[in-house]
Amino acid sequence: MKVFRTLSAAAIVAGMTLAAPAAWAQSKTIYIGMNGGPMEKAYTSQVLPAFEKANNVQVTVVPGTSSDILAKLLANRAHPQVHVAFLDDGVMARAVSLGVCEKLEDSPVLKELYPFARMKDDVGAGVQLGMTGIAYNKKLFAEKGWASPTSWLDFADPKYKGKVVFQSASSSTFGLHGLLALNRIWGGSEQNVEPAFTKWPSTVGPNVVEYIPNSAKISEMVQTGEAALFPLTPTGVADLQDKGLPVAYVNPKEGPVLLLVDVCVVKNNPDDQLAQKLAQFLLSAPAQEKAAEAGKQIPTNRLAKMPASMQQSLGNIDDLVHKVTVVDWNAINAHRAQWDTRWNQQIER
Question: Which fold is adopted by the domain 131-257+326-347?
Fold first, then answer.
């Protein structure tokens, strides 16, 4: 079996931009863009080797955030350096609107997915199910004698003053999800965020000790006791628990917000047949079971089984998916720039 390699964007640009697409196909190397860290480790160690062995192909991971990967796809439209890409659902909506993804080939595996995981016209599909809910510091809650949180409105409870950590809605999907969840409770929608921006300064705002650009700092802030309450996913909480941190996840009674990681076959990629085959493999139950075992990735394939520990923590996934809030990414992306400016000027000023 061949060995996976991870390359930086700079290395790929330096070594591959001059190579003809035919040379890529002949080398039987396929490039996949995805988040680095735990996701990359899970896929390269447990999921992708089966595809590599079965197809006599080398898989090279190009790590980066969804925004980074989309930027690479746009910069190399004519001769893309990535065959298949993992993108967060909000970024995937932008990628599709910009025409960098092609339709997935019809396959029985598509019918095994939860309906919301199939994008319109099958131009992409959810490969990992996530949901943004409430995470909290169990140690701090026990010390304070606080009951576990139950609602998105807990972020506005005065008893948490100075103990809420919120990701920036202008740079983090988790922060944006939290903003939109509260906005809905206050009577708004993706077409009308006025309730959230109007109410935030007198409700959640006074409780926030710090707005952070992403979730990387949460680990440190839990250890120092600064963070009591923050938006996060079950997978994100599991990663913190693996580090020995006293955190727990709660699905708010109003419902968590759906967060999908989607897979996209890149248009004009140099080996479309192999790229389509890889996408179908990643959406299959066996591949998603491996991802669940190795990285606590929640399957989007209804036939995939999760480890007992995940089932115990998350409960019945079929029941849970009926409670998630699905946001309108087309509406969000149409107004995102204005929201980001308003957030930065009014909330994080």
Answer: D-Maltodextrin-Binding Protein; domain 2 (3.40.190)
